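Reviewers of the previous submission asked for a worked example of the structure-prediction workflow described in the proposal, so we include one complete record here. The input consisted solely of the amino acid sequence. No template or homolog information was supplied to the procedure at any stage.
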Amino acid sequence: MPGISFELFPPRTREGEVRLERTLERLAPLAPSFVSVTCGAGGGAVTATLDVLRRVEASGVAPVAGHLTCVGRSRGEIDAEIVRYWQAGVRHIVALRGDPPPDAGRFEPHPAGYGGAVELVEAIRALAPFEISVAAYPEPHPDSQSILLDLRVLARKAEAGATRAITQFCFESDAIVRLRDRVAGADIPISVVPGVLLATEFDAVVRMARRCGAGIPAWLQRRFAGLDGDPATRKLVGAIIAAEQVSRLRREGFDAFHFYTLNQGDLAPAVCRLLEGTPVTERSAA
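From that input alone, the workflow returned the following structure tokens.
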């Protein structure tokens, strides 16, 4: 069984709270290496993130990682949030430039803020010895000027102190392999971990892909076609798509995967079973 980790986000409704609790119950037996929790869209303080991180820790699911972005806050405010993470016992940060609010167009740094993820990683490393993960892009980010420039930025993130690069979700596995090979060819000392989306709603996938520049292959649309009113089948299709991608990437030498759960706990156990990796805790309970 490969190493696995999961991403969650802070819920905004009572229904979301209940779904998060159920998701934690489903993820616990899978023994992930860590669980990360995002910040709110367009940045936002880490208060809600810390609340979920504490719940994950209390549940015993896994070690935690808190997301942190550069959006909408000064350096002093962000530094204070880094210190809050450390004081709360969080020892792993996923450091991201962050996406602007939907109505803001392109990313613009706060006048007194950090200009991007490289500066953010440098600030984190200066304040405390966190483990630091960052983002990597198999396909060009909407704000990217070139794949070569993306590689140079990733190299700077590694030089600043990041040790893990989690990829944006990408349904074309060849692009993830090429990214890994570019990183290795450039001797960048950072591990590349594929980010795998556990997708169940095609329209939602399209919206997320537009924001981050991910491509939507024709075969993905065909697989979800005609299933708008059939959520059970959509879940089966989503699990199979994720398991197929992980299987392919394992054959290419990847041994760790980060699943974007969208706070849905049903698909991750199914994917792990499809990968013939039923955890001992689940087998013994059967």
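Confidence is low (pLDDT under 50) at residues 277-286. We consider this example representative of the routine output the project will generate in years two and three.
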